Amino acid sequence: MEYQNWVRNLPPEITEDTVWNLKVYRAALYLSELCWADSQLLADKRHFSLSDQLFKSTGSISANITEGYSRNSNKEKARFYEIALGSARESKDWNFKSRYILGENLSLDRMRLLTSIIKLLLTMINEKRNSYRVSESNTEYIIDDLENN
């Protein structure tokens, strides 16, 4: 499924939400659609666990991005983006493990998209974490009186 075709068929309830403005959200949601199709290739009951893990971990990425995006504080946003990051790395691992069934090229394609998502999430987490670092203005403390006691 080609990205542009996929976007054209999305309902406005998805594309008109402000979270849609996040490139990482769009990529993660698209990836979950791709992995839904991939999980159908793993439909054999011998591969149920692999299919289930792949789809759950991939779906968790966009879900945690939306939850983090909806939080007020940057600290909370960063926490949910970190959870999404964990799910992205887990998804990469499951994609690698499924390469014998899905094929090397398809799995590698998914892992490349996951690598892009991971890089975007790392940038977002860093931005949110740096925005609430504890710091003080350049206040000079006088400690002479303390040392004389």
How is this structure best described in words?
The chain is mostly helical. It has a single domain (3-132), classed as de novo design (two linked rop proteins) (Up-down Bundle), CATH 1.20.1440.60. It is built from 8 helices and no strands. Helix 3 packs antiparallel against helix 4 (48-69) and helix 4 (48-69) runs antiparallel to helix 5. The longest helix is centred in the C-terminal third of the chain and has 27 residues, at 104-130. The mean pLDDT is 88.
Feature tags:
149 residues; 74% helix; globular; 0% strand; mainly alpha; de novo design (two linked rop proteins)
Name the shape in a single word.
globular
Overall pLDDT score = 88
Tell me which oligomeric state these chains represent: single chain
* Structural class designation: mainly alpha
> How much strand content do the residues show?
under 5%
The CATH class designation is Mainly Alpha
The biggest beta sheet reads: none
Low-confidence stretches: none
Distance between the termini: 75 Å
CATH fold title? de novo design (two linked rop proteins)
Gyration radius, in Å = 21 Å
Give helix and strand order, one letter per element, not per position. Answer: HHHHHHHH
What is the CATH homologous superfamily assignment? 23S rRNA-intervening sequence
Number of helical regions: 8
What's the total count of β strands? 0
What is the architecture at the second tier of CATH? Up-down Bundle
User: How many distinct folded domains?
Assistant: 1
Helix content: over 70%
